[in-house]
Amino acid sequence: MDNRFATAFVIACVLSLISTIYMAASIGTDFWYEYRSPVQENSSDLAKSIWTDFESDEADEKTYNDALFRFNGTVGLWRRCITIPPNAYGYSSPERTESFDATKCMSFTLNEQFMEKFVDPGNHNSGIDLLRTYLWRCQFLLPFVSLGLMCFGAVIGLCACICRSLYPTIATGILHLLAGLCTLGSVSCYVAGIELLHQKLELPENVSGEFGWSFCLACVSAPLQFMASALFIWAAHTNRKEYTLMKAYRVA
To answer: Where do the TM regions start and end (predicted)?
Structure first.
């Protein structure tokens, strides 16, 4: 194996490993989107009602989003979290002498992940919003497909190392290309879903939202996957081409 191809193969493996770590961290964390809101009054009956509704297993899309808007919420692919102010109702403890912010998280069940979204969030009689429904499902499924493709590609790459041949890494490169497309699709679906949600549910006054670092990790992972794919395919194709030319020269 030529040193050029070996170097390209090693660089592609490093890029693949980094993108896999980034993608796994992105999937497992809760900071795809973050809301910033002013401090709420602890004694407010409305605030207590929102906390209670947020913890309910029957909370609908409008209910938990209202809590996210008002209490510095963060959203991931698996969970949604809000920040409870110090000494808030239900979270104060006589043993504690320090003020602290408690984070309360609730997981999205599989049923919620595949549940239909409504034209008017929270109103089940408003009809199903197919676009938001399928955007939500894609943003949840595509990252796992991407991670699975990269892992499968890594297995093929390991087999190529054992066989001391770069040719099988063409398949690894193609799988990384597909993984990058899945990651890019997931990010695009998430952005579109957030924008459509905010058109349906306007943010309260003085509340702002921004994409979090979990989302940024997914965004960075996609180009790394594309670069790894290009190096894998280039190394395998060029090495194969030179081997064929050398073999033809020897025959001649």
So the answer is: 6-27, 140-167, 173-194, 215-236
pTM: 0.84
Q: Identify whether the C-beta of residue 30 lies closer than 8 Å to the C-beta of residue 78.
A: yes
CB atoms within 10 A of CB 58: 6
pLDDT band per the 50, 70, 90 thresholds, residue 220: very high
Task: Report d(CA 82, CA 97) in Å as an integer.
Answer: 22
Rounded average pLDDT over 216-228: 95
Angle between helices 213-251 and 130-163 (to 10 degrees): 40
pLDDT tens figures, 66-119: 889 888 899 999 899 988 776 554 544 444 444 556 788 888 888 888 888 988
Distance CA 64, CA 207 (A): 15
Q: Cα separation of 197 and 59, whole Å? A: 16
- Which of 212, 192, 27 minimizes the C-alpha distance to 108? 27
pLDDT over 60 at 231, yes or no: yes
Give Cα 248 distance to the centre of its chain. Answer: 48
Q: How far is CA 94 from the centre of its chain?
A: 39
Residue 87 to residue 99: CA distance in whole angstroms? 7
Higher pLDDT, residue 35 or 85? 35
Please give the Cα distance from 53 to 19 (Å, whole number).
38
- Which H or E element spans position 168? none
In this structure, what DSSP letter does residue 40 have? P
Chain position carrying tokens 């070996």: 6
Query: Edge-to-edge strands of the sheet including 208-211?
Result: 102-107, 79-84, 74-75, 33-36, 208-211
Using the structure block, give the residue that is written with the tokens 């110090």. Answer: 86
